[in-house]
């Protein structure tokens, strides 16, 4: 059974892992001189195109900005919710199996569970806007990083409390 400890530590670890992914992709987008390209591509993949064509350029731009902001906010909430759930499941799963969650096991968990969740969501999403989408090696690196952050956080907090 999932305890309050699993939930608390898992959510904290998941939020840190999610933040590491946000920072990683923001930096990758900056290096490519395309700030926010990753959330635009993912938001377009999950929530559809930017909206209907409007006659007035100012109104069209305002609607596009508003729709992008809403899409980005929704994507951010779903992102951190998914990583919180991954964190809780990592803490619970490792404790139930008698495995110590640390940097290495977290990295392995991140690649397996993170990639499964990511590609499952892509499979369920509609099919468009993939020009700026990250490749499989980037996704693997991101999930490895997130898992290592998650496992490292749990390892660090448990070693300090013991």
Give your account of this protein's structure.
This protein is mainly α. Helices cover 79% and strands 0% of the residues. The protein contains five helices and no strands. Helix 1 crosses helix 5 (136-161). The protein starts with a helix and ends with a helix. Mean pLDDT is 80; it is low at 50-54.
Quick summary:
The chain is mainly alpha-helical. The chain is built from 5 helices and no strands.
Please supply descriptive tags for the structure shown above:
mainly alpha; 162 residues; elongated
Spatial separation of the terminal alpha carbons: 23 Å
SSE order, one letter for each helix or strand: HHHHH
Low-confidence runs of at least 5 consecutive residues: 50-54
- Give the helix level as a range of percent: over 70%
β-strand percent reads under 5%
Structure class: mainly alpha
What oligomeric state best describes the polypeptide chains here? Answer: single chain
Shape summary: elongated
How many helices? 5
| DSSP E strands, number | 0
Write the layout of secondary structure elements.
Elements: H1 4-31, H2 37-47, H3 57-97, H4 103-124, H5 136-161
């Amino acid at each position: 059974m999932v305890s309050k400890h699993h939930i608390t530590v898992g959510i904290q670890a998941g939020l840190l892992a999610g933040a590491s992914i946000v920072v990683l992709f923001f930096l990758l987008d900056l290096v490519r001189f395309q700030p926010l390209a990753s959330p635009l591509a993912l938001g377009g993949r999950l929530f559809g195109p930017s909206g209907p064509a409007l006659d007035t350029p100012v109104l069209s731009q305002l609607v596009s900005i508003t729709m992008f902001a809403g899409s980005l906010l929704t994507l951010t909430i779903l992102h951190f919710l998914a990583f919180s759930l991954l964190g809780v499941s990592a803490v619970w799963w490792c404790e139930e199996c008698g495995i110590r969650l640390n940097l290495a096991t977290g990295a392995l968990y991140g690649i397996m569970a993170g990639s499964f969740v990511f590609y499952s969501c892509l499979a369920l999403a509609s099919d468009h806007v993939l020009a700026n989408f990250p490749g499989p090696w980037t996704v693997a690196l991101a999930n490895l990083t997130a898992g290592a952050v998650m496992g490292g956080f749990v390892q660090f907090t448990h070693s300090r409390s013991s």
